[in-house]
Write a structure and sequence with these properties.
This protein is of the alpha+beta class. It has six helices and nine strands; from the N terminus they run E-H-E-H-E-E-E-H-H-E-E-E-H-E-H. It has an eight-stranded antiparallel beta barrel with strand order 1-5-4-3-2-6-7-8. A hairpin with a 4-residue loop joins strand 4 and strand 5. The termini are far apart.
Length: 195
């Protein structure tokens, strides 16, 4: 199974320039324009299971991702290059995604909400060999004709120890007085649709 472990924090828009300068990775920031469309079935079977199925355009590359609920800070994650999730459901299952995905989606998938933001990301090596990716995201979430600003810091474990990544994330949060963001972009965009 693919697995994602990340820690998210809300950032005030005015803090972003200072964070960007202070946290700049050794190799600098990579800027990536992200445009995301989230999909679900007509009866919202995926979101009812706390699954996220999306297509994200990252600069010029389209990537389909399925995320599922897991334990603690982890989530199941499977992704591949494709333009629409319906085209690759069987491939996601072959990669280890839940087989139930095929039967849930047999009657079709529909775009339900989205996000558009600029991500500045870079890799940081911590003591003991743990590698994390820092990402600063600024943009908007969209759903149901409404929109909401998104401004956050993500600390994602790429390899090594979860405890090291968590300690680093908590240290950043304390230093910059950042509040944890427990809801993902999809959950917040979906809430806009349901208003």
């Amino acid at each position: 199974m693919g697995q994602e472990i990340e820690f998210k924090y809300r950032v005030a828009a005015g803090q972003m320039p200072r964070l960007e300068k202070a946290l700049c990775p050794v190799d600098g920031w990579e800027a990536v324009n992200m445009e995301t469309v989230y999909f679900d079935t007509a009866d919202f079977a995926l979101s009812a299971r706390k699954w996220t199925l999306r297509t994200r355009l990252e600069n010029d590359q389209s990537i389909v991702t399925l995320k599922t609920k897991a334990v603690g800070f982890a989530r199941g994650e499977w992704e591949l290059s494709a333009t629409h999730p319906a085209k690759v459901l069987a491939q996601l299952v072959a990669m280890g995604a839940p087989e139930e995905l095929l039967s849930l989606c047999q009657d079709g998938l529909f775009p339900i909400c989205g996000a558009k933001f600029l991500r500045k990301r870079g890799t940081v090596s911590l003591a003991g060999g743990t590698i994390i990716e820092l990402a600063l995201d600024a943009g908007i979430l969209t759903g149901g004709g409404s929109q909401e600003e998104v401004c956050e810091l993500e600390v994602e474990l790429k390899s090594g120890e979860t405890a090291s990544a968590l300690a680093y994330a908590q240290e950043l949060a304390a230093k910059w007085e950042l509040s944890p963001e427990y809801r993902g972009k999809f959950t917040r965009a979906l809430a806009l649709r349901r208003k």
